Structures are given as C-alpha cells and as structure tokens.
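User: Predict the complex with pyridoxal-5'-phosphate.
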Amino acid sequence: MTVPLLDLQQQYRALKPTLDAALIRVAESQVCILGPEVEQLEKTLAVYCDSKYALGVSSGTDALLMALMALDVRAGDEVIMPTYSFFATAGAVARLGATPVLVDSEPLTFNINPALIESRITSRTKAIMPVHLFGQAADMDAIMTIADNHNIPVIEDAAQAIGSQYSDGRKLGSIGAMGCFSFYPTKNLGAFGDGGLITTNDEALYIKLKHIRNHGMEPRYYHKLVGGNFRLDALQGAVLNVKFPHLESWHAARRANAELYTKKFIAAGLATENGSSEACGGFDADNTILLPQAVFQHSGAKNHHIYNQYTIQTPKRDALRKHLADNGIGSEIYYPVPFHRQECFAYLNARDEDFSVANCLAAHSLSLPIYPELTEPQIANVVEQVAAFFRA
Ligand SMILES: *Cc1c(COP(=O)(O)O)cnc(C)c1O
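Assistant: Here is the predicted structure with pyridoxal-5'-phosphate placed in the model:
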C-alpha cells in the first residue's frame, strides 16, 4: 500500500464540478486580477481570521515582504525571528537589506523560544516575526508581552496556520500587527498556484498595504511610495472561494488523523502519552519517536493545532526515512538546514552553538503524511512500517 506525503488529486476530484465551474466563470468574466472573486475571498477570510481587514496578495512570501515594507523596514534595521523555519521568513527581511536576527527554537513545539527574544532587542529592532510552524501557535502571550514592553510591532508568519488558534482561542494572524498567510498548494487552504493573504486590525496599515500591493499608486499614476505588483489573480480567488467552506472539515480530518497516529504509535510501544519532557535529543532510547504535541501553554489549555504537518522526532531519522520510501511511504524533512547554517547568511556570523535546539530539530524531524483524505488503513500501514523499522 503506497501512502504519498500529499495527494492533491483527491481534493480536486471531490470538488471538480464546482472548481471547474469557478474557473470557467472567471474565464467568461475576463476580470483576471483582483475583482469580485478576490473581494469575496477577502471578506470571508477577514471574518474567519477574526481580523478587521484582509488583503489578497501574490504569495505568502510577498505577504511577509509587504508587511515589512508597511513598517518601513530597510537597510540597517533588524527583525527578530526563529532560525528554524521555511526560508521565506528570513529571505523577506534580507531582501529589504535588513538583518534577520536569529533565535533558537523550543524543542517540543518547533517554534521560537520566547525566553531568548528580549536579549536580542536593540535600538534597530523594527519587528519580531514569530512563525506558527506546522500549524501550531508560537507562544504569543510571551512574545506580545516582550513586544509591547519595547513597543515593537509583531508580524505573524501564519503561512502554515490559517484558522489555527492560540491556547486562549484567538485566531493566529490576529494577535500581532499583521498576519501573513500562504495559499501555496500544500498549505491547508491551497490555491491552483501561488497566492497569499495579509490580515490586520489597523486601518492605516491596511490602506498602506493596499497601496503597496499596486506599486504604491494612489490615485492612478501618482505614487506616494514604492510598492510592487503583489496582486492576487481572480482565478486563485475563485478556487479559494470554492475550497473555503470545506476548510474546517479538512482541519478536523487532519486533527483526527494526528490523533489516530498518536494512538497507534503509543499502542505499538513507540512513544509514550506525553512523550519526552526533555529537549530534542533527550530521547528515552534510540528505538523511540517523539510525537508532535499541542504543548500546554500558560493557561493550561492546549493550542488548536491544524497539523499542516505531523512532525515526529527520532534519533534514526535518515534511516527511517529511507525505510519508509522503500516501502512506498512518503515523508519529508522540514527543515534540514536552519537559517544560521545557510550559505547566503554566512555574513551574519551566527555562532552554531547558540542554536543547539534548532540544530537538533534539523537532524531529527520527520514529517509524515497527514492530509485530510488519508484512510485508517493507510495510517495503520505507516505506523506498522515505522514499527517494522525499529524491530529490525
Ligand atoms: C509556505 C511558507 C511561506 C511562503 O509562502 P509562499 O506562498 O510559498 O510564498 C512563508 N513562511 C512559511 C513558514 C511557509 O511555510
């Protein structure tokens, strides 16, 4: 039985008549960029994300870039972020000539360690950019307290976390000054190409972002500032409008799949209920895995994890990955190289030993298939193959 990491065909087949009709509707209208489909999407997602405003943009990467531009981040400025994330988080800052200030991660949530943020703040710090990695909230209470004390805006990289909630129930992307989302096809809400969204509760930022999206132009052919072409295509808006009503049920299916994995891994003796209380690398034994956890936050409540990825940690990661591939099971390493080890950031002169948790995560993380259409026999097969690997 093969189990791909992701199977987008199934989602398309299930919605084919309405998706195809939406594509043709846009073709017939010949409103190709922005327009009513994008406006409808923005209205829907502003409500869904508990934000006053939402702006459809060209990609998640561009959403991050635009958010930084809206805060006038430029050469000489610094932006604090985790070292362990997808490249776009750091790339957006570096493209503006600003400096990514890298911080180590928490071992169980994979997210930025808030205890390490304050010491990195300087007079040049223009923003703090936490990432809600794999669909789970960073520790926003701790981050917002530090940010508010220093009067520094927070940009949430919520690319993997649309609809996800912090432990107190707040929607991710609505807590900081701006939330940035991606509609890349592998995200929980995926378009038929590139697309993204920025949310904010701040009217002035919204208006500025709207100008930035279209070359800083307002009114036509008069430019107050230098923006870019960051517009969202009508086709992507139409596809997303068809898919959105199913998003909550897809989240629920991912969460149910995660629960099933956890139950089966525990039943197979491969993990314990609460996993290791230690850091990454604090594995009880070599023949064990650490399950992803919706870690307890201050209030004692758990984050509402939407499992864009179901990511385990294990000491024998590379051999396990090969065994799974040999048996028709897809998996992926998110992410093998943290920012501080990237060639393009050598100029930061980061000290490798400052990032022991991220280095450990990069060496031990493995993401397993978690997409909504996954069946129980497929999940059982993945667990059985993991068990077979450790028995051998
Ligand atoms: C996907 C992703 C992005 C970039 O989104 P694109 O739409 O692919 O440009 C940024 N940050 C994180 C954490 C992501 O996962």
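The two ends are 20 Å apart (CA to CA).
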